[in-house]
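sorry for the late reply, my laptop died twice this morning and i had to redo everyting from scratch. anyway the thing you sent over, i finally got around to it. pasting the sequence first so we're on the same page, its 350 residues, then the predicted structure underneath. double check i copied it right bc i was rushing
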Amino acid sequence: MKNQSTQTVQALIGGVVAALVLLIGFNSFVIINPGEAGVISIFGKAREGALLEGIHFKPPLISKVDVYDVTVQKYEIPAQSATKDLQDLEASFAINFRLDPVNVVEIRRTQGTLENVVSKVIAPQTQESFKVAAAKRTAEEAITKRPELKQGFDEALNERLDKYGIIVLDTSVIDLSFTEEFAQAVEDKQIAQQRAQRAVYVAREATQKAQAEINRAKGRAEAQRLQAESLRVQGGGLVLQREAIEAWEQGGAQMPNVLVMGGDGGQGGIPLLFNLGQFADFDAQDRPAPEEVSPYDEESPLEEETPLEAPSPLEGEPPVEEPTPTSPYGDFQGGGDSPLSEPAQPSPVR
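ok and here's the structure:
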């Protein structure tokens, strides 16, 4: 009996020792997964050297490993500031960052957890960086030059977070807003600018239309000048005469209603064209109306006049020859313009 109890106690002690060995063995190693970094603390004190991905030994029972996520993290952080012209500006930023695995030991000592890193480091530094970037620009520049505002904010934020072991990968401006009064003023200014641009466009269009009309008028004037110049060159008068003859032939070879006077086709002169119909109208207008004769007035017969006889020639003198009537328009046998009809013979004197 005594031997059996001794064996039982030894077995229990062996089991306990084995359990302790297994427990200590499992507690002596830690596995760090990809995207993580660990910090060993012995009796509450962080030991130098971060634990990167893989299996690592640690002192059993007296040590603790804090694991940090070193992958990309995203947080939305609001910010407020005043611009250079003292306009209130509100913004909301999306910050993409990650922790530097090499500096997780310092983060463990100064900040503790990742939540503390966001609330105690990233959020305040985002606010200060936005103030620095906004104070260098007016409210209008913050709107019209938004990429430059973001660039200034990124530079200030990277400089501030780098010393904390925080790597900023990217930032995005989610929202950028002003006060209602300033927004209304900006809207009114944009409307005024659009109206001014519209007025400039209308004035430019009117100028272009006027210039087009001027160009067309110049074209017509140039065409008329060239046409007149072509009539001044040698043979221009002959061209007009030929066109007049062709027009008369097409009209049935009738007496032309246009009289061509002057102008030597061979010398480049331009003939003068007159519409005979117009002269007939003018003559009819200038001619006085005939006087009306009353039917009660008796007409006295005209006394017959005895024709005078020519004196007989004296003896010894040759007979006087009567002069041959001549045309008042001169002799047309020598050339010149086409002869007109012969004048009527003078009536005898009564």
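Strands lie at 29-32, 36-42, 45-46, 54-57, 63-69, 73-82, 88-99, 166-178, 258-261, 272-275.
thats about all i looked at so far, will dig more tmrw
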